[in-house]
Amino acid sequence: MKPPTAIEIPSELHRALRRARFVAVLTGAGISAESGVATFRDAQTGLWAQFDPRELATPGAFARNPKRVWDWYAWRRERVASVEPNAGHRALVELERQAIEFLLVTQNVDGLHQRAGSQKLVELHGNIARVKCSQEGTIVEEWSAADGEVPRCANCGAFLRPDVVWFEELLPEGALAAAENAARSCEVLLVIGTSAEVYPAAGLPMLAHEHGALVVEINPNETPLSARADYVLRGASGTVLPRFLSAALAP
Ligand code: OAD
Fold first, then answer.
1. Superfamily of domain 1-37+84-125+171-251
2. Which residues line ligand 1 (CB under 6 A)?
3. Which of 11, 164, 178, 247 is the 20 to 30 A CA-CA neighbour of 48?
4. Residue burial 108-133, b: 16+ Cβ < 10 Å; e: rest
5. Calpha distance 90→142 (Å, rounded)
6. Are 43 and 121 in contact (CB under 8 A)?
7. Residues 78-123 pLDDT 10s
8. Which pTM was predicted?
């Protein structure tokens, strides 16, 4: 099927969403872009255009220089705490409310979906607001970095780290299993604001497609998924999603 140009939304897509029993959604950094959170791979503005992921988002980077890694995540944590969910996040809350069965799978660690009100969601890459012991993996609720040092685990003395998935690390097993089950069972999968380059998340749209789901990409730019998606809605999710969903879900 040929994707429509601009953000013309075909009526058969509205019908497909209305008829679907199980709707799944995969989001990436792009859905938070309009809230003011930087994406990773956009040229110029993406975090990986300005910072080297090997020095900030790997276990080796943390072992070499825990303070640099901790401080970078502390800066990002403050940034996401200071912004608000946008119209794209909110549209997905409405979709969850109206769908018979629903799962939102996010690669984002910013917590904006939860702050918007999403409940049926799994976080594939963790959450930047959570902190865990780098040795024991236990979540630590109370910690302070007020002295400028990397805080340590009260139990074992190891450094604390953000509870996010770094390159070379495995995704949380339960979250990945739930995401794969949803991809296998859903009738429609919306893939929003992801460059579809980082696996295993990037494999979910094709898994869904192989199991008969209609795959809809919402992204202002082309990605490796674009040529294989059933529909491509080219535009910013904060504009496209509310338009698409209000038309599709209108009584
Ligand atoms: P990327 O930065 O790779 O991709 C962001 C996507 O959002 C791009 O395809 C943009 O075109 C698109 N985009 C930009 N603005 C948008 C808007 N307003 N509306 C919709 N889409 C927009 O981010 P992810 O695909 O999320 O992993 O990256 C995947 C993973 O790579 C991240 O979870 C992170 C990163 O390294 C880890 O940190 C483990």
1. TPP-binding domain (3.40.50.1220)
2. 28-31, 33-34, 39-42, 46, 57, 107, 125, 165, 193-195, 197-198, 219-221, 223, 236-238
3. 178
4. bbbbbbbebebeebbbbbbbbebbbb
5. 30
6. no
7. 999 999 999 999 999 999 999 999 999 999 999 999 999 999 999 9
8. 0.96
